[in-house]
Amino acid sequence: MRAQIAQRTLRTDRWWIPPLATFAGLLLISVYAAVRTFMGDHYWVDEYRYLTPMYSPCLSQECLPNAAHFGRPLPELPGFLTPPVIIIPFLLGFRVTCYYYRKAYYRAAWMSPPACAVAEPHAKYTGETRFPLVAQNLHRYFFYAASLLLLINIYDAFYAFSTGIGLGNIVLLVNVALLGAYTLSCHSCRHIAGGRLKHFSKHPVRYWAWTRISKLNAKHMQLAWASLIFVCVTDLYVALVASGTITDLRLVN
Question: Which keywords does the record carry (predicted)?
């Protein structure tokens, strides 16, 4: 049972600012991602081989041939659907089931609860024991899918160096570095490294990995936001270069 208090809250600070800011941030990023997903254009810079992470891997017949690094094995998508809809369920699943993001949108969107020591508006609380929230237990499987997609993003970033070095290369590298740090800091990754071990001394390699991942895990919230925002920054940069709005700053040709 949750604590029952007659007042809405006993807090006197502006407790509503953090959940409001979180909601606004997630909403803006969601709108941007939706627009870019269904835009279906300006995702590939052929001259410099920049591919936005939102369209990687590009696997359907709609994909530009040079942007399809792993071929186009899938048929043309029906209606208004675009190539990102193939990978977005896995990326979205990884983010939505992430331990930090659960806390973020439970408070900001569902107000369950909106903040510590603030009563929630819901009549009852069932946690993550019933549908649809019981699906949060799939997080570890989304982690595997996200890890595979991260490897593909890393390949894309290094593949772009075959034409030289430009600002876009640096943007792509920073993006995969943040995505890698966020993925490694995941609670599931930490459990894979050191979970179910009774004696760390008998598993020195896993213990070494667990200690490093634990340090990253302490920054999981910051990495979650930094990686999410920078994916949008990377996509925007590639889109602007691909559309001819800006010119990529070349450092080495």
Answer: Membrane, Transmembrane, Transmembrane helix
Is the confidence at residue 242, as pLDDT, over 90?
yes
What the block records as the tokens of 201 is: 């001394």
Q: Terminus-to-terminus CA distance in the chain, angstroms?
A: 65
**Alpha-carbon dihedral sign for residues 60, 61, 67, 71:** positive
Q: What are the C-alpha distances in Å from 186 to residues 120, 198, 219?
A: 28, 21, 10
164 φψ region: left (φ > 0), alpha (ψ -120 to 50), beta (else): left
Comparing C-alpha atoms, which of 148, 146, 55 is closest to residue 97? 146
Task: For residue 195, give every residue at least 6 positions away whose Cβ sits within 8 Å of its Cβ, in sequence order, or none.
Answer: none
Task: Give the pTM.
Answer: 0.92
Alpha helices in 65-165 (DSSP H): 88-96, 99-108, 139-159
Q: CA-CA distance, 68 to 29, in Å (whole number)?
A: 26
Cα dihedral across residues 14, 18, 19, 25: positive or negative = positive
Strand partners, 252: 165
**Total count of residues recorded for the chain:** 253
Point out which residues pair with 9 in neighbouring strands. Answer: 118
The answer to whether 158 touches 51, Cβ cutoff 8 Å, is no
Q: Residue 76: exposed, middle, or buried by beta-carbon count in 10 A (0-12, 13-18, 19+)?
A: exposed
Contacts 24+ apart (CB under 8 A), 93-96: 93/138, 93/142, 93/145, 94/139, 94/142, 94/143, 94/145, 94/146, 95/224, 95/228
Give me the amino acid identity at 191: H
